[in-house]
Structures are given as C-alpha cells and as structure tokens.
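Researcher: Re-running this chain for the archive, since the previous output was lost when a drive failed. Same request as before.
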Amino acid sequence: MSAGISEQRPWLQSEQTIIVSGYGAFVVNNLIEEGHPDRIIDVMTVGPVHSPPRGVEKIVWKDKENRFYSAWARGDMVSVSMVPVMSTGANAVFVNGYSKADGWEVTGLDWDTGRTVSRTIFGQNNKGNGAYAILQFLESCDMLFNSVVGPYRIPMR
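Model: Regenerated structure tokens:
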C-alpha cells in the first residue's frame, strides 16, 4: 500500500467532487500556499503565477476492517480547479492541471494503479484552464473541454 497524500502533509483541502466507483474513491488536493483573495482572479493565476496544489489519491473501503486505505497516491499530480471525472469505459480518472514545463493539460490516470494513461497538453495558453468546469466525453470519445474562454471539442482519436 502506498502512503496517502494526507501522510505527506498535516492536512489537505478538496474543493472538488469525490469520484466514487465500487469501493474506491478519488480525491484531489486543492490547498494552495499562496493565491489571490478574489476567487475569479485566483482561478486564472493559480498555476501560471501562483504555485498550484499537488496531490491526488484513490482510497478504498476495506469492509472487513471497517476502514479506508490508500490504494495509490500521486504527489506529483496537479488538479487546479476543474472538477475531476471518471470514465468507466477507459477505467481512468481525469484531472486538469498546470506545470511550468508543459502548461495546462488534462491527465488521465488508470483507476486501478494511478499510472498516467493519457495526456492532452494545451500549453501555456489559458485556453487550457478549466476554471471549475466539468470535463465531458462525448459518445465519439472526443473531449468537450469547458475552458475559461468557452467550450471546445478535442478529437481524442
């Protein structure tokens, strides 16, 4: 079992929904060390200007022990503000984050292992900032990305 993100810091905060599938639950850390007091400005600057929050974790309920345990944790993952989503068809959970090297991206993580299975890189343009939107996948498997500049369709083939 891996060490959870709660074991890496004294406490964390998640402002996003918890993804639940079967006995597993996926959470993201949204606690930032610095930011802007205006939430609109904050969502535009966390990542490019202010250090983004780090850490995601899948916990699993162990029924016989009546407790949760960490199935896997990724302290390197960033989920700035977009609501994470799970695709049961792809067996993956997706987050929108930012890194200095690649800019904005949507990263897909394998539900069972936490291994990175997909990366859609938008670059430094704020077009890749999801800003509290909900990521959606269409029947064609294309991504409907609801950016701060409006929604657009991304072919995933």
